[in-house]
Structures are given as structure tokens and as C-alpha cells.
Amino acid sequence: MPRLKSIAELQQLRAQLQKDLGSRTETSTTITVGMGTCGISAGARDVMLAILDALNARGITAHVTTVGCIGMCHKEPLVDIQQGDEPRITYGNVTPKMVERIIEEHVVNGRVVEEWVVGRVEPAHRPAAGAGQEA
Amino acid sequence: MAERHRADVLVSCLHGRCEELIPALEEEIKRRGLVGEVEVVEAGCRGLCAMGPVLLIQPEGLFYTNVGPADVPELVEETLIKGRVVERLTYKEPVTHQTVCRYEDIPFYKKQVRHVMRQCGLIDPQSIDEYIAVGGYQALAKVLSSMTPEQVIEEVKRSGLRGRGGAGFSTGAKWESTRRAKGEVRYVVANGDEGDPGAFMNRSLMEGDPHSIIEGMIIGAYAIGAHQGFIYVRDEYPLAVHNLQVALEQAREYGLLGTDILGSGFDFDIKIVRGAGAFVCGESSALMQSLEGKVGEPRPKHFHATERGLWDCPTALNNVETWANIPLIINNGADWFASIGTERSKGTKTFCLVGQVQNTGLIEVPLGIRLREIIYDIGGGIRGGGEFKAVQTGGPSGGCIPASMLDLPVDYDSLVEAGSMMGSGGMIVMDDHTCMVDVARYFLDFLKEESCGKCVPCREGIRRMLEILTRITEGQGTLTDLTTLEGLAKVVRSASLCGLGKSAPNPVLSTLHYFRDEYVAHIVDHRCPAKVCKALIEYSIDPEKCTGCGLCRRKCPREAISGERKEVHTIDAALCIKCGICHDVCRFDAVVVR
């Protein structure tokens, strides 16, 4: 990683990162697993392994990432799926057994498994929109 | 085209999936003698590839999805010849967007205002790149490029930010006196030693967005003129320690920590120090003792830490949540921050909503919100059909607030007035199955263990109060005990050295104040209204309801239950240890607690 020598370099890096992250979410599927302590104790690690297995078995390339606690500890483990510029869909109380169907129906066929969904985050509310700056 | 033909069939979203579809359509059209009347056109992608192949039939505007060659004869027969719709192929509104609730509309989030926690759960906490992409370190850039330390302090002062560890001291004022204090070396410290049972806001913040704390600390260090910072975090939070470590390393690699930060000439670095699990080390002076490598005991407060703190140097010690508020204030301005909250409590506060509430979790709300809104609108009310009895704010040494005060605004001053405190933000909801005397006993038992023992009022006072409370829960109390309790509580509160002792009487005093009738019931009637205190309850079996299934007999760990199959069972009170298992397993509500 480069050492930033000035504020101009920080701004340059930020612009580049925004572009990179933006194109990553726009062109592929991002699967996010809540892996704060609450998520892990509710079984998020097994869920993530099941997701990786299911993706491998189907030869699907998706970006799998982890995040901290979003607050809904009673709904952990939480798994978010975001495809292209679609809203980010959150599944709650996910178990390894549910993973197969979520991958098959949502990731492959683009149909949200409604009965397990907790909520959605519109693209405008995604962090890539520069939420840190908004009032 | 539409004028030349009676109908057009526009085929799209094939993506090589169903090459036979178009030939099949053309073949069928030819077979039914529709050539010249109907034309098949391969059209561009409609963006519904997941439902492809899709067919649009003009001029009717019929939209068919997931069409295969097998559907062709029916489609041509029904739609193109008879003019009818093939229902099973019609486009169904995708369930994705309309039916799924947006986060803002989920009751749990509706009344929340997430600023400090804005990135928690959304960005990868182990990636500085994601933090920078969403606007991270912009506040630092602003401070280093366009603000003097005095301006930073002024901005924080003007915002009205008060310490999020619970004491509620003005952060700006603290920084100002640290900057003004005499001494060459100054320190900034982040307190992440969250020890309250049932509280985990600081843990989630350190795990979920460590860079926001680090950025706040760099800004604070610049403001007071410190070059070394410490994050004190308890070792029971391994993931928080790990994520903070990763974050510090990444910040160093980018030159956001170290020498000459962003070419400004300002040097600063942060070290993580892990606490060994003593509750008292969350108290600022004990924390600094521990940081220095000494036994974690509080110091007498002849000097403020702002003048003589860590190694007797001026020190600004703030809670991690306070630090995470700093970048927000710098980015959005003091006026923006001061517009949230109440007259004297500005901004938002994170709370851990736990206990007998439907939606347990971590919430962030504007200060001044009513307790009722937190428990009913966000928390979804009481779990398991019970009735709300009390909520304890401020951790083990907070007070219990009764149902009659549910409309109390949650801010520093109102909570203290109600006999509780803000604390770091634990919120334990209790229902009518909770005995308030037992709750007071439970928390004093915790505090007895955690009192460091340095000063007599705390060490001895808590023990004596605990003895009395235990006696009452066993049905051996007297009414004079209540006066003794109140007297002891006042001494412990006024004479203890640190916050632990000063606030320890809160659970006793608040329950005595709001739930005195429960104490009296224990003492006078030898009765525990919530049916919790074992010495005052008795289990028996209702002969009317007992079916003789034998489940309780099999589950009883003391073999205290006897009875023949399909006949009424009985409990031997001499053997019964009142564990309550029979009551929990009975499917016929036949086990009665008195």
C-alpha cells in the first residue's frame, strides 16, 4: 500500500476506491455476512462456510465479504445479497440449511426468497454513495 | 411493422440460452398459416435476463416470461389465433422490490437515527479502503488542512457533545483544559473497557467500524497536542482487539498514523492495551492505573486527569463512542450536531436493548427520545406476553425505572433525576416475572465481586447491603432493614472514592423508591409477588388439571414428585429444591407456584 504524503493523495485514493468499489457492486454479486460477535455466536461462521461451498459447487463467482453488527442481533445471522444496481436484500436468522435455496433462487434465478427476507437497502443508501458526508 | 402485420412477437433476453425458441415459433406460425400476418423479431435485452427468454406481443402488449419451445403451440393457438392470454406465462411483478420492506420502514429502524453506527454492518471493518471510499478520514483531512487546534476544540465545544461513557462531561471542555494544562507530553485515551452485563455497544463499534474511533482520536490528539494515544479494550473482546489491530496497521501503512501525517508535520500513533477483565478499570482513573501497569484501582481525585492523568501528564480520556462522534461533528459542523437531541443533551446515543423485549439488539436514537418509544416502537414490546415492569438503564449500577415513568425523555439529566443514569448505554427491560428485590440483590452481588476494595464505604457498604437484601429475599427481613438500607446507600454514595461505589446504591435506592410494596410483601407477608424468591414460594400440583402424564416426575432432578400413571401426582415439599423444571415442562398448566 502506498503511503499518503498529502491530502491531495488521500482525495485521489478516495476517488479511485469509490470507482473500484462501485464497479465491483455494479458488475457482480456481493454476499455480505454479519460477523460481529453477535453474528458469530448465532452461527454466522457456519453460514458463511455453507455459502462458500454452495458457490464453489456451482462455479459462481461472487464477492463474499464480512461486516460488523448492524444492530438487529435478534435476527442474526444476517446475510445480505446485492446484485448489480438492485437493492441490497437482507435475510435474517439464516442457517446453513437455508443457504442452498437462497443461492439457487436469489443468486442464480434472481428471485428473492421473500419468506426469509428482513429488509432491503436501496442503492442510494449504500455506503458507496458517500454516506459519511451526508447531514 | 405494426401496420404491416396483424401482430409482432418480439423475443428478447435469450443470451444463447434457448436457440431453438425462434425457429420453433417461426415453424408453428408457418404451420398455422399465419405467415405474413405475424412476424417474429429478435429484440434487444430488456434487463429481465433472469426471467428470459421473454416475449412481448404487440399490439396487445402482452408480456410473457420464461418461454420455452414447449410453450409455443399453446401460445400460438391461444394468443395469436384466439386472442386469449396464456396466464401461466404472463409476467408477474418481481417480488424483489415492492413487497420487501425497506430498512427505514422496518419498525426496529423507523425511530432510529444512525450516525455513529452509520457504517456498522455495511462496510468491511477490516478494510481501510472501504472506510475511505465512504468518506473516511475526510474529517482528518479537513482538520489538518484548514483548522487550528483551537478551532477544533471550539467546534467540539459548540456541538454540545458530552461524554458517552455515561458521566456526560462536556468533551470540548475536557479537551480545552487538557490543552491548557502544563506539561510537555500529553495523551489521548479511548475507553473500550465495556464491562456492564448486557451491554455491547462499544464492542460492536470497535468491531464494526474501528476506523471511526481512530480518526476521532487523531483529530483529538491534534487538538490537544498529543503524540501518543492508547485504546484500552477488554481482552474478552477478541474480535474487537483484532479489528482494531488490523485498522491501526492499515492506517500506519497509509501514513494516517505515524510521523508527518498527510504531509502536515503532525506526528501521532496509537497503541492498544488490553484490560484483564476488572469492571472497575472502566472507571477512568483505575483505567489509567492499569495502563501504567499498576493494579487497577481508582485514584483520589485531587487532580483532574486533564491536568495529571496518565504518568501524571495531561490526558484526554473519552469513551470510544465519544471518539467516533468527532469525525461526524467535523464533517457536518457543530450546528448540525447540536440540532439533534435536547437542549442539554445533543446528538445520538447507542443503547443495547436487552431483556424481556421482542427485538433485542443494538440501537442508536436521538437523545430525548421517550423510553416508551424505545421499548415499544423499536423494541416491539414485551416478549412472551408478560407485562412491562421496569427498565434498568446505565448498567449494574443504574436504577430501575417503573412503568409510570415510560414517558421519561432519555437524556443525561432526566435519567439522573429519575434515580438512574445514562451509563454507557445498557438498557435491560424487565417484565412482571421479575422480582425487584431479587434484581437489586443480583446487581449488588455483581458489584460486590467487582468492587476493588480500596475504599471502605464501597467494599464494606456493598457487602452489608447485599446481606440485608439476601435476608429479605429469604423472608427474614424486617421493616427496619429498609431504613438501614437507605442509610447505608447514602453513605456508600457520598463517601466512595470512584464512580463504581458512588453509583452502586442506585439499584437499591431506585427499587426501594419505586417498588417499595414488593419489599414490604417480602418482609410482612413473606410473599414474593413475582414468584421468584425461592424461600418464599412453593410448588404444588393442581389435582383438577393434572392428567398423570408423568412428565414432571421424570424431569424432576430430586425425585420429589410421585404418582401413578394417569393419576394425580404430588410434590414432596421437603425434597423440592424449587428449580421450576416441573412448571416449565407441564403441558397442562397443572404445576402451581404460590
What do these coordinates show?
- The complex is a heterodimer of chains A (135) and B (594).
- Chain A is built from 4 helices and 5 strands; from the N terminus they run αβααβββαβ.
- Chain A is of the alpha+beta class.
- Chain A has one domain (27-123): Glutaredoxin, CATH 3.40.30.10.
- The relative contact order of chain A is 0.16.
- Mean pLDDT of chain A is 84; it is low at 125-135.
- By secondary structure, chain B is α/β, with parallel strands linked by helices.
- Chain B has 5 domains: 7-95, Glutaredoxin (3-Layer(aba) Sandwich); 128-338, NADH-ubiquinone oxidoreductase 51kDa subunit (Rossmann fold, 3-Layer(aba) Sandwich); 348-431, Ubiquitin-like (UB roll); 436-523, de novo design (two linked rop proteins); 538-593, Alpha-Beta Plaits (2-Layer Sandwich), CATH 3.30.70.
- The N and C termini of chain B lie far apart (86 Å).
- The chains are: A alpha+beta (135), B alpha/beta (594).
- The interface between A and B is large, with 57 and 69 residues.
